[in-house]
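$ ./design --mode recover --in tokens.txt
reading tokens...
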């Protein structure tokens, strides 16, 4: 059986308008526009990063519209933070599936704990991250689906494949490979400038 799996980082529902210079430019917040786009793709499974939620527990119009309009009745969300862009919104990761989700958990990742001082003097500390794990029943075959939004090391002047982060990568690898079911991994790995297959994440070398 072939599956159509779609992943996207949807920038909290904002519409991307380009990147003049080094800055990304977004226009209005229009989450339903993304739903229209995904509807044309007809995914069996949709995984998102920076999905917008109206409540702190990961619910709202966007989530409900995704499930209904895309005919993906099973879904789980993981709220990470309150939006700093759109007042009153939260954001996080989300899994939508046409297949039953038999088990679900959110696993906290190993935070390397780095920090940096921005040009304006602000101190940035690396925020905690997690991975969603959903066990799907796909026509009698159980499959473990992992979805994540990984640490943005480049925002701290570092690279994804710096040796210092090998233990964090190994921690993620152990989560994904610990079960006996076939595994599917989706996510925004924030691996800017480093090809994921060439990085130190041994998960992709198996």
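writing sequence...
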């Amino acid at each position: 059986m072939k599956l159509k799996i779609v992943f996207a980082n949807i920038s909290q529902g904002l519409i991307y308008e380009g990147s003049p210079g080094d800055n990304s430019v977004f226009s209005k917040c229009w989450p339903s526009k993304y739903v229209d786009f995904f509807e044309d793709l007809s995914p069996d499974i949709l995984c998102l990063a920076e999905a917008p939620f109206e409540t702190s527990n990961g619910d709202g119009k966007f989530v409900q519209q995704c499930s209904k309009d895309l005919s993906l009745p099973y879904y789980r969300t993981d709220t990470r933070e309150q939006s700093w862009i759109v007042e009153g919104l939260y954001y996080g990761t989300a899994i939508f599936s046409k297949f039953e989700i038999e088990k679900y958990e959110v696993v906290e990742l190993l935070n390397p704990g780095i920090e940096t001082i921005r040009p304006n003097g602000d101190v940035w500390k690396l925020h905690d991250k997690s991975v969603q794990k959903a066990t799907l029943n796909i026509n009698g075959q159980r499959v473990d689906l992992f979805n994540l939004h990984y640490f943005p090391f480049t925002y701290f002047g570092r690279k994804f494949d710096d040796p210092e982060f090998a233990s964090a990568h190994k921690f993620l690898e152990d989560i994904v490979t610990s079960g006996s079911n076939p595994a599917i991994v989706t996510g925004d790995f924030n691996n800017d400038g480093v090809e994921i297959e060439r990085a130190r994440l041994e998960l992709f070398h198996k």
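exit 0
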